[in-house]
Q: What sequence folds into this?
């Protein structure tokens, strides 16, 4: 379920229903993926209005309640009339296996075990990938230190990974087709290198064929989409934001607090 305390989502829509652990829509006769906040143009809930009136009819969108980015298309209704499983995953640069997909423990059930292979669809082209389970140190929670800062906690686990050993950069090139990867890696370098976070994607599994299709999470990286902004614009906007919050906003806050004390 969405985390936004009543944020518009198909699963709280008046047309939604849940049977056999699956969400579906009575109005459009489609399955509803459980990947966060998803919405369509027909969303209704106790008389509430759809906050996204300009989204297209016949398409399911996804967004994040914690972001100001607009919804991004996820799938057409036509596809969703056949049961499909959508799960969250992330792409990491693994030092041994190259650019790979890291799976969460609760998503292991959708895939065969280590040593097997699966077919993955990238931009309509199907490629064979391997499943491995090497030992990796990954982040697992955080805690506040005595100095008042946050410390990331790590655990060493057997990490389930989907990789392409013959083409270790294949997933990187696929991401490059959709996103400006360089500014993303520069901005999140600390997270990707030290905290083990990767670039978020969706895996779309078709149970009948077993083929897995990938799509990047364009909502999370909305400003880095190909054809959206030039990388130089992204760079200078980030510089401006840092300057604004570090100096202008901070001094404005200090002046306001000082005036309140004086008043």
A:
């Amino acid at each position: 379920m969405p985390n936004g305390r009543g944020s518009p989502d198909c699963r709280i829509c008046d047309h939604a229903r849940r049977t056999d652990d699956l969400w579906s829509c009575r109005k459009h006769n489609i399955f509803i993926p459980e990947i966060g906040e998803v919405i369509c143009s027909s969303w209704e809930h106790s008389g509430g209005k759809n906050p996204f009136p300009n989204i297209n009819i016949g398409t399911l969108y996804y967004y994040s309640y914690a972001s100001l980015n607009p919804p991004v298309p996820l799938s057409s209704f036509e596809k969703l009339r056949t049961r499909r499983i959508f799960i969250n995953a992330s792409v990491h640069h693994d030092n041994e296996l190259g650019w790979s997909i890291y799976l969460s423990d609760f998503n292991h059930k959708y895939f065969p075990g280590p040593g097997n292979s699966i077919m993955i669809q990238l931009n309509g082209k199907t490629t064979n990938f391997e499943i491995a389970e090497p030992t990796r140190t990954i982040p697992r929670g955080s805690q506040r230190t005595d100095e008042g800062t946050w410390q990331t906690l790590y655990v060493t686990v057997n990490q389930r990974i989907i990789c392409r050993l013959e083409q270790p950069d294949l997933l990187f090139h696929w991401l490059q087709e959709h996103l400006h990867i360089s500014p993303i890696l520069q901005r999140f370098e600390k997270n990707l290198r030290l905290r083990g976070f990767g670039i978020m994607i969706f895996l779309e599994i078709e149970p009948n064929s077993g083929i897995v299709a990938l799509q990047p999470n364009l909502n999370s990286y909305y400003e880095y989409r190909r054809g959206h902004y030039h990388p130089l614009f992204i760079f200078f906007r980030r510089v401006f934001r840092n300057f604004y919050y570090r100096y202008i906003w901070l001094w404005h806050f200090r002046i306001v607090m000082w005036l309140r004390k004086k008043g």
User: Anything to note?
Assistant: The two ends are 47 Å apart (CA to CA). The chain is about 20% helix and 35% strand. The first strand starts at residue 16 and ends at 19.
